Amino acid sequence: MSVRECVLAEFEKNRGVYLSGEELASRLNVSRTAVWKAVKSLQEEGYEIEGINNRGYCLSGESDILSVPAILKYLHREGIQFRICKTLSSTNDLGKNLAAEGEPEGLVILAEEQSRGRGRFGRSFYSSAGSGLYMSILLRPRCSAQEALSITAAAAAAVSEAVEKVSGVKAEIKWVNDVYCRGRKICGILTEAGFDLEGGGLEYAVLGIGVNVKLPESGIPDELEGKIGYVFEDETAPPDVRNHLAAVIIDRFFSYYDHLEEKTFMETYRQRSFLDGKTVKILSTGAAAVQKREATGSEVDLYETAVVLGIDEECRLLVRLADGGVKALCAGEVTLHQEGNKK
Question: What is the pTM assigned to this prediction?
Answer without folding.
Answer: 0.86
